[in-house]
Design brief:
129 residues; alpha+beta; five-stranded mixed sheet; 36% strand
């Protein structure tokens, strides 16, 4: 999941009491398809795409795709906070790892939602410790 500056803070702030909320407003067909394909319990890495450009946290899919409440022609998912990463993993660090060179986020930089391979997820998680 991709968010602009402060989105992770807003994301976490909205969840301080509820611990989960709807991720809506996605308006790209390929990103919508990734939302559609999410399964209950899938872990999602949250990437700041603004000034910080780093993976900063992990959320979990708590409800699979449903019509976006802001526009029924699109999809949304419900996410719950899993945890912040111990150390954000910057785009520069991700680009420096040969094992991550085929990540979709490095080839299609405008997508706000995309899939990760399990090994990519695990490498980024390890990089954050």
């Amino acid at each position: 999941m991709d968010g602009k500056i402060g989105a992770w803070g807003i994301f976490l702030g909205r969840f301080q009491k509820k611990k989960e909320d709807v991720w809506d407003g996605v308006r790209n067909y390929q990103a919508r398809n990734f939302l559609r394909d999410m399964k209950l319990g899938d872990l999602v890495m949250f990437y700041h795409s603004g000034k910080e450009k780093a993976v900063v946290g992990i959320a979990e899919v708590s409800e699979v795709s449903f019509p976006d409440p802001t526009n029924k022609d699109w999809l949304a998912v419900r996410l719950k906070v899993n945890r912040d990463l111990n150390n954000p993993v910057s785009l520069k660090e991700i680009k420096s790892k040969d094992a991550l060179s085929e990540m979709l986020m490095l080839r299609q930089t405008r997508l706000s939602v995309m899939s990760l391979q399990k090994d990519e997820f695990d490498i980024i998680l390890k990089m954050s410790s």
